[in-house]
Amino acid sequence: MKFCNYSFILYLFIFLLPILLLRTSATLSTDQAALVSFMSSIFLDPQGALGTWNSTIHVCNWIGVGCNIEKLDVTKLDLRGRLLIGKISPSLGNLKSLLVLDLSQNYFQGQIPPELGFISELAQISLASNFLTGEIPYELGRLNKLNYLNLGGNNLVGNIPKSIFCNGLSSLEYLDLSNNSLSGDIPMKQGCELKNLTYLLLWSNFLSGYVPLSLSKSKKLMWVDLESNNLSGELPSKVMEHMPMLQYVYLSYNEFVGHDDNTNLEPFFASLANASNLQELELAGNNLGGKLPANIGSLSNLIELHLDDNLIYGPIPPQISNLVNLTLLNLSSNLLNGSIPHELSRLKKLERLYLGNNSLSGEIPSSFGDMPHLGLLDLSRNKLTGSIPKGLANLAQLRWLLLYENHLSRPIPPSLGECINLEILDLSHNQLSGIIPSEVAGLSSLTLYLNLSSNLLTGPIPLELSKMDMVLEIDLSTNNLSGTIPSQLESCIALESLNLSNNHLEGSLPNTIAQLPYLQSFDVSTNELIGEIPDSFQASSTLMNLNFSYNKFYGYVPNKGMFSLLNVSSFLGNYGLCGSIKGMQSCEHRKARHHFMIWPLLVSAFGMTLSCLLVRALLLERRITALSYNRSDSNSSKQIICEEPKYPRISHQQLFEATNGFNYSNLIGSGRFGRVYKGTLQDNTKVAVKVLGSSSISQAASEVSGSFKRECQVLKTIRHRNLIKIITTCSKSDFKAIVFPLMSNGSLENHLYPCHNGLRHGLDLDLTRLVCICTNVAEGMAYLHHYSPVKVIHCDLKPSNILLNDDMNALVTDFGIAKLVIGDDNDSFSVHDSASFSSTDGLLCGSVGYIAPEYGLGRRASTQGDVYSFGVLLLEIVTGKRPTDVLFDESSSLQEWVKSHYPHNLEPIVELAQSRFVSFAPYGVGSCNNKTLLREIVLELIELGLMCTQYCASTRPTMLDIAQEMERLKQYILSPIMLMDEVHLDS
Predict the structure, then answer these.
(1) pLDDT tens for residues 699-755?
(2) Residue 827: active-site member
């Protein structure tokens, strides 16, 4: 019997093994042919991913190809993020044993081949973040073993095939069709079942109709995102009540209504009672009516609740205080009334509370001061009465306090001055009385605006207001303030707008007010001011809006300088004024009257003035002597160029050979002062050779030479991991070049705006990587500004001057127009330039769109100018718009366009950023795809970008501050505590 068994095994080995080998060979041959056909449909492979796909290498060793253990056939094709440009070949349908297909994060165009629906073994498909068009093939619904399908972030149109939801993909766990242009309803009719579905992402499409009842059979759902569609009907309570695993529900910006003819929200919140792990619920921007039910308090693990922009009425139920884990509560822009329940103070984790634009009445609960993490409190546009609680001073984290347009009365509590992190304070349009407390006026933390207008405030303008040296706007108009305008306001150097109109101010105008370097708007109309209007207002280069009307000003008003932009409406009600402004009465014998007034002053002050002039002349002479000494030292250092012996000597001939004769095919960049070529030295070192040369006939050779010396001087001085390192230089009378290591991943510009054949494609970096890159840049720039042996001002920070190495770490490059300075930014001397502003200083301007506004006014290069450019870079990354794009409606720049949406209309920008970053990320969930985390990071980047691009240079943060903030953001987004478990294709 044993002999028979051995004989049978021997028979199998001798006769069946050749058959198996032949079958294996045939399978591999078919699979290889399918992959070769797929390769032929690729137009561009910039990373060389398909370079290994040749006959000399076994198909199972091709990049991105996986086979089973016995290498019988191809089971996996993973080419995500390879920047491939082309079409998806139908030949992939011949890979009969394929289990995993991932072509996401590329630039595939055209339609999805229906042939993919014939790969019966497929378990996972990801074609996300491409440029695919057409409809979703019906055939994909035949893949009954498919558990993961991600087609998000494409340009797909038409209806969702019924086969996706019915009769086919019964094993589906993850479905992402978001951020396309799909229409029609969700085709999940009665009898359809997706019992294993865990993630359903259909946001940002044009879907209509109801949420199908059959979805209730998907009891394992954790993440439901139907946001930004045209879905309608009642809130899907009968669907949600069968989903105990729910964690994230996004139904905002649809057309949902409440139950019982839009009068009852209780059934919906009751349906979520079993979802004990629910963390985020977003229902904003619908047509929801009815009252907030008491059972809303049963969602005890909720972290964020968005119910804003609806039609919800009635009081806020005190039971909402049971949501003890809330960090954000948004009930703004509804029809809520009644008083604010003091029980809200039990929400100890709350960070942002939005109750604005309702009809809430009564007093602000004093217990609000017991919410230790509250950073934003918006109670604006309600009917609140009583006083501002003194306890708000306990909110150490408070940054925004918005109480405007209420009926608040009594004095402003001085204790508000203890809110040392406050950036915005708006108490306008109330009935507040008493004086402006000096403690509040001295809040130096205010960086955006102070608005106390339209109240009943009395007394003088406090001198402590001068401590607000970072605030952009002060509005004290329409009160009963008296006394004079303090000249100390000249210390508010960041001010862009100052409104003191409609008060009882008297005395003369301080001429120092007009000397504020960034003041654009100044209104003192309807007061009791007297005297002549100081000439400093006429001489201002920043003022655009002025109003001196209805005071007691007198004297001559010239039609020169800033006044040439005004008409008589800025001077109405001042009967002592005359001049050449159109519509103003003319002056007769002006000079005689002028001399008559000035002469007594000259006589009385002559003795004291003469002695003062002598002293000041002596001090001036000493200063000029010191100045000349410093300038001579600066000029001597101009002779230094890169000729230190530690740099290797490379001849012009060697560079010529390395770049194939500076051949056009090796050109990787060009700019104002020359071109950059890639090359390989004799020792196989990959290099980038920047050849300096005039880019136009009109460009002087001296400018090119100056750029060469300037860049050499910078590169010789700096040493930092995020700044480009120099290999050597080559300098002859007719040839100048700088040699750098070649950065394999090109510039940030290439990744933000990748293109092929002149066609622009989408983003190819996720938000995590971009935050890391910006952190690298900030750290490099902070070194230049604060730690370099000689301070360096880059002057041309932009994406094309940020290179990425093998590890995608960023290095700042191109110091051709940089400035090396000694001293601080307010009194600096350039190592390379004279102290006077000459035509060559036009180099400071940098690149259009990134240039700080003060440079256009003739101011010197400064570190704040680099900060401005960095801020533009952040806004560019968030919006996906170049600062030179003509896409900003009536705004003059990218930052003005973003600023026009800030802070109350940022949602469209945030949603756009979310769609770009979420659709790009590999699987739609996880570290970069948590929509809440994304939203927070995007908002942080917008705020930081706006801070960096403030018109007033002195109010911008330093690069050191920015580097610390970016590092904090990076750690936040990478923190394991914040990250969700990712759904991996390999799992």
Answers:
(1) 445 455 555 665 665 666 677 888 888 777 777 767 788 888 888 888 898 888 875
(2) no
Q: Is residue 122 exposed (0-12), middle (13-18) or buried (19+ Cβ within 10 Å)?
A: buried
Task: Determine the pLDDT at residue 830.
Answer: 42
Q: What is the pLDDT of residues 589-622, one digit of tens each?
A: 444 334 333 333 333 333 333 333 333 333 333 3
Answering whether pTM is above 0.90, one says no
At 473, which helix (H) or strand (E)?
A: strand 473-475
Query: CA nearest 855: which of 863, 870, 865, 847?
Result: 865
- How far apart are the C-alpha atoms of 982 and 818, rounded to whole Å? 44
Annotated active-site residue in 176, 426, 475, 796: 796
Tell me whether residue 4 is exposed, middle or buried, using C-beta atoms within 10 angstroms of its C-beta: 0 to 12, 13 to 18, 19 or more: exposed
In whole angstroms, what is the distance from residue 162 CA to residue 136 CA? 10
Q: b vs e for 855-892, b when ≥16 Cβ sit within 10 Å of the residue's Cβ?
A: beeebbbbbbbbbbbbbbbbbbbbbbbbbeeeebeeee
- Give the fold, CATH level 3, of 744-987: Transferase(Phosphotransferase); domain 1 (1.10.510)
Q: How far apart are CA 859 and CA 840, in angstroms?
A: 13
Question: What band does 983 get if pLDDT is binned at 50, 70 and 90?
Answer: very low
CA 951 to chain CA centroid, nearest Å? 18
Rounded-to-integer distance, Cα 354 and Cα 400, Å: 11
- Listed by start position, the domains of the chain span 602-638, 641-742, 744-987
Q: Is the dihedral of CA 619, 622, 628, 631 positive or negative?
A: negative
Q: Residue range 127-151: average pLDDT?
A: 93
Q: Measuring CA to CA, which residue among 301, 305, 303 is closest to residue 292?
A: 305
Which residues share a beta bridge with 731? 736
* Joined tokens for residue 751: 């990744």
CATH 3.40.50.300 fits 641-742, yes or no: no
Measured in degrees and rounded to the nearest 5, phi and psi for residue 424 equal -130, 130
